[in-house]
Amino acid sequence: MNGIYYYLIAFIVIWILAFGLKNKLTNHGFEIQFPLIMWRTEKFKNFIKRMANLSPKFWKWFMNIGIVISYIAMIYITWTLVSSLSSMLETPSVSLVIPGVEMPGSSIYVPLGYGLIALATVLIVHEFSHGILAIVEKINVKSVGLMLFAILPGAFMEPDEEEMKEAKKSSKLRIYAAGSMANITLAVMALLIVSAVGSYVIPSTFEEDGIEVDRLVGDSPASKVLKEGMIIESIDNHKVHDSNSYVNAVNNLKPGQNITIGTNEGDYSIILDKNPNNESKGYMGIQAAKHYELNDGVASIYGDTLPWIWFGVLELFQWICILNLGIGLFNLLPLKPLDGGHMFETLLSYKLPKYFYKPIVNSLSLILGMIIIFSIVYGFL
């Protein structure tokens, strides 16, 4: 079932319940006004205050480093976006990513369950970190909570706008940098967990035994003949026994080529399409994964089922790492209303008058915004 139908079902159920229980929900801090549901709660606000008061000096010190890292990341992500212009018609540099939905122009498919959990960590960590630094900088936080825009989840933190305007520039920078720095920090922590599980736990628990079809891209050549879970044994008489042999076998495939894929369930012929990310490469539409067998010694102690949970842990933290890093970096683009746009504007305000830096920020925001919109739209064509 396509992930978009899950969103549609959830949209209908949530909004029927929201309007049906509106009076009761309003008494518990909910604000319902289609297409937006907001839940303000003192518990989140008190939690942020406790976190901020644990060590205000640490938060300021950490975010001073975060400001430097954020500006370096801003330069990197801006250069990456601009330098991708030459290849944008072949490989769009920006695409929408929605968990459970195959998006045109995107080479990344985010699983529904893992993706939603990872996205929740992105939003909550990001907004709560803004709130923690606002309190550290003596700026009143009016409300904190969770929100739902149509069917898309989110979190929010509302600082006192007048106090933000009057705050020192250094305080503003620490608050603006806090969200992305929290995302990047969480991405690094998730990466360490992924490395530990992937490098130590799984090799000591399982043995690699070939390559399997983990997922088939909808309406791709392979989706018409193969099934998920099949073990790939050969590609055009090239034996496939591990990830290296699989990469070597598919590296030189060309569009229009008729290939034979040998599996544990028989041989299948496929005519390759053009790869959407590189039209000179052949495209099967297979998301492959290593196939593992459980070590006998481990099975005798923990059984045949429990150890497989490590692959769920590995995939979950992979997506927590990928989404936190990707969204955290994207948010540092010098494009308003993103945090990077506010940081860029604050930086220019140290030396330039408002009538001079405002047009610079607005022009750059317009240019980068057009590149992003063009890349997303072109991916759908």
From TrEMBL:
<dbReference type="InterPro" id="IPR008915">
    <property type="entry name" value="Peptidase_M50"/>
</dbReference>
<dbReference type="GO" id="GO:0016020">
    <property type="term" value="C:membrane"/>
</dbReference>
<dbReference type="InterPro" id="IPR036034">
    <property type="entry name" value="PDZ_sf"/>
</dbReference>
<dbReference type="GO" id="GO:0031293">
    <property type="term" value="P:membrane protein intracellular domain proteolysis"/>
</dbReference>
<feature type="transmembrane region" description="Helical">
    <location>
        <begin position="6"/>
        <end position="21"/>
    </location>
</feature>
<feature type="domain" description="Peptidase M50">
    <location>
        <begin position="114"/>
        <end position="371"/>
    </location>
</feature>
<feature type="transmembrane region" description="Helical">
    <location>
        <begin position="316"/>
        <end position="335"/>
    </location>
</feature>
<protein>
    <submittedName>
        <fullName>Peptidase, M50 family</fullName>
        <ecNumber>3.4.24.-</ecNumber>
    </submittedName>
</protein>
<feature type="transmembrane region" description="Helical">
    <location>
        <begin position="175"/>
        <end position="202"/>
    </location>
</feature>
<feature type="transmembrane region" description="Helical">
    <location>
        <begin position="58"/>
        <end position="79"/>
    </location>
</feature>
<dbReference type="GO" id="GO:0005737">
    <property type="term" value="C:cytoplasm"/>
</dbReference>
<dbReference type="GO" id="GO:0012505">
    <property type="term" value="C:endomembrane system"/>
</dbReference>
<feature type="transmembrane region" description="Helical">
    <location>
        <begin position="112"/>
        <end position="136"/>
    </location>
</feature>
<keyword id="KW-1133">Transmembrane helix</keyword>
<dbReference type="Pfam" id="PF02163">
    <property type="entry name" value="Peptidase_M50"/>
</dbReference>
<feature type="transmembrane region" description="Helical">
    <location>
        <begin position="356"/>
        <end position="380"/>
    </location>
</feature>
<keyword id="KW-0472">Membrane</keyword>
<dbReference type="GO" id="GO:0004222">
    <property type="term" value="F:metalloendopeptidase activity"/>
</dbReference>
<dbReference type="InterPro" id="IPR001193">
    <property type="entry name" value="MBTPS2"/>
</dbReference>
<keyword id="KW-0812">Transmembrane</keyword>
<keyword id="KW-0378">Hydrolase</keyword>
